[in-house]
Design brief:
homodimer; mainly alpha; Arc Repressor Mutant, subunit A; Tetracycline Repressor, domain 2; globular; DNA-binding
Chain lengths: 213, 213
Amino acid sequence: MATQTPAPAAGLRETKKHETRQLISDHATRLFIAGGFEQTTIAEIAAAARVAKKTVTNYFPRKEDLALDHQEEFAASLARAVTARRPGESVLAALRRAFADAVAAQDPVAGFSGQEFARMIADSPTLTACLRGLHDQREHHLAQVLADVTAAEPGDITVQTAAALLGTVHRVLFHRIQTLTLAGHPNDQIAHTVAAEAARAFDLLEPGLADYA
Amino acid sequence: MATQTPAPAAGLRETKKHETRQLISDHATRLFIAGGFEQTTIAEIAAAARVAKKTVTNYFPRKEDLALDHQEEFAASLARAVTARRPGESVLAALRRAFADAVAAQDPVAGFSGQEFARMIADSPTLTACLRGLHDQREHHLAQVLADVTAAEPGDITVQTAAALLGTVHRVLFHRIQTLTLAGHPNDQIAHTVAAEAARAFDLLEPGLADYA
DNA sequence: GGCTAACTTTACCTCCGTCGTAAGTTTACG
DNA sequence: CGTAAACTTACGACGGAGGTAAAGTTAGCC
């Protein structure tokens, strides 16, 4: 039976490894939300998880990795939406639809984190800087895909600018969701509000990028 | 004996302060370019300048402040270009012209740093992250100005998006100049190339933002 | 049951950023 | 004009993040 899932493979070692990682991550997020990201030390996390400090930094090289999960998924989301777009669909239409879908699903990757989580990020300069870097990575991946589909040179200014503009709209809407979450609005209301705002935001790009790719 | 010293205005203290700051900054940039930002320690800078470590961190709270100067000027550049625009000139036209002027003048604020300086930034994750933060600040200041001139609510999505899109074009072109500088192109050639590319980049926003503000 | 390889642990180190402390200068007041 | 208070600056020391090296321990494979 060919199982598609990368099954545990009977690996007791793999299982414990994953358990340990999850254990550390759970304690970390709990302590971060309770006491703040900057105020919580790695030593405290290690003590709470009953492991050595080195084990924590082994699984999570940087402290930010303990708080921000699914980084690669986030960075690849826009590029994936373009490569998986429908035949004949423009890049802008695909990215517009991808955001609408993410909002409808209240996807955490689109910014629908809990209020406490949003507070943790907003209160930490380290995490906000890390988030900026993720938006930047996401834009670079999108530019790579756009260069592929348009058969343009990697340094082409139109590709770079188009990727940046498209990524920027997603970034602005991401922060909008975060802001509303911080203000205490319920997710349903945020989804309703942002869906309408997203239309206006993407419309600013529509005349310039409608027939791109 | 000199009884009164009204004119000097206690200049001895101010003078020594400024001298010490410049002394530290000079040694820092020299060591950073010679050995890289991450590899150079504050202790080495302090030793070179013949002061205590604490004195360095007193003048420059963060290590990045030793390398990146004129941060506030950079962050305010776009907002200033808008507030100082000609009567009847659109925001987009003002920012397009501001970039053209900066390129013509080969302004360091637009990205025209020396090759060694660009290398120092590109090789340092800390400095690139700091630069991202400066672009972000610049965008926020621009959004503030746009909210003022359009009499819109601060959280208005059109204002946020317009500021982000306009800031993004400047950011892409900034990185373009940096990339060309890293590749060893002379400033004159870069200015010529980027001036043409900037026209194409801003044209993507023209249909959507031509009549904004 | 023994061997190999890995993961965890321990200990140590460097460096950044921040805290109290001492010394100097400017200013205010007698 | 002199003295003392108040401010600012330079100094040494501490805490935490991140990395390295060596030893102990456990899973996986004969």
